[in-house]
Amino acid sequence: MPNYIRYKPDITSALFWFMKEIVLLGSTGSIGTQVLDVARLHNIKIKALSANSNVNLLADQAREYSPSFICIGDEDKYDELKRLIDDRRIKILCGKDGLCELASLACDMVVNAIVGTAGFLPTLTAIEAGNRIALANKESLVVGGEMIIAAARKKKIKIMPIDSEHSAIFQSLAGNEENRINKIILTASGGPFRGYTSEMLKRVTADQALKHPNWCMGPKITIDSATMMNKGLELIEAVWLFNVRADQVEIVVHPQSILHSAVEFDDGSVIGQLGVPDMRIPIQLALTYPKRYASCAKPLSLTDISCLTFEKPDDRVFPCMDIARSALEKGGNMPCIMNRANETAVKMFLDGKIKFFEIPEKIQWAMENVSYSKEISIDIIFETERETDEKMSRIVS
């Protein structure tokens, strides 16, 4: 695990570099569709698109953006996709191999907006192919951060964060390369159940959990926000992206979602980034850095907001943050076990198989019962996911 307290970014040598052509993985999800909003605004060419199973939207996107390649993750939907765009000269791929082929295409940047651990191998493949990365798939760093960062350093590849929190940290560190970081302040909205007690969480429904007060996101990340596991995953992501220790990351609940995160330096100065809760802002910066251009997002008015508040998270009611810290401290494949168990538990909750309050319980159970490995590799990650799925299915049945 990294133990540095000095941030050393790998800044591109071009002073005014602008995106020309991107590969977008996960184009039909919440982040992916907003990436396309930004691309449309700034005439950024789309070389390739991928989706997991939404063939109709992927076909619509292919007709609008005319990419050279598209990929459908669900191999059973390959023929359907082919029928939908049979009149276009677009190469159609499918499955994991297809995703990795897209990730290795020559381009200005690969944008990884895939949800879940399916995004890990494409991230690693893109880096090994020498492609710059804009990363919204936090699971890449959660399950294999050591491998991803080692590969990026070897290839001298820059990873641009898309998460609003990590983009804010990145921006706060700009110009402070030689200054020591005291801590990173990672902000959290608190989700739809901020202020709830453990007893109240026993009665919440999926419909309630899917109603985030500030952000419009996909179902998985919205549930992660409700359990606060999203903040646990982001803590691990921050450790790998910014070379800090876990104890240097403080999670602070900020219900207004205006301060997206901040950095405290040794002299006591705290530098943060503020903006309206609109993912198109960090997405655009990732694509155009170091230049800033006019955005389609609403400007921030501090007088309209009038009040910003901050509070400590309730670790007893929302234990997922501590679960993530313990997984990171254990290292090896433990973050992978935790992440996969969380993905499975969230799906079980949305399918009505378990209650909301059981999600952290199932994750903790998996971390205690799935085989632990101090070493980490691609094969170990895949085997860990297989064993976690098998054992999680057993406890529900």
| Global morphology | globular
What level of helicity do the residues show? 40-55%
- How far the N terminus sits from the C terminus, by CA atoms, comes to 36 Å
Largest sheet: 7 strands, parallel
Spatial ordering of strands, largest sheet: 4-3-2-1-5-6-7
By DSSP, the count of extended strands is: 11
General description of the model:
It is built from 17 helices and 11 strands. Helix 11 (229-242) runs parallel beside helix 14, helix 14 (320-330) runs antiparallel to helix 15 (334-350) and helix 15 (334-350) runs antiparallel to helix 16. The longest helix has 19 residues, at 378-396. Strands 4-3-2-1-5-6-7 form a 7-stranded parallel sheet, with helices on both faces. Strands 9-8-10-11 form a 4-stranded mixed sheet, covered by helices on one side. By secondary structure, it is of the alpha/beta class. It has helices at 30-41, 55-65, 78-84, 95-103, 120-128, 139-155, 164-173, 198-201, 206-209, 219-227, 229-242, 280-288, 302-305, 320-330, 334-350, 358-369, 378-396, and strands at residues 21-25, 45-51, 69-72, 91-94, 109-112, 133-135, 159-161, 181-188, 249-253, 259-265, 270-274.
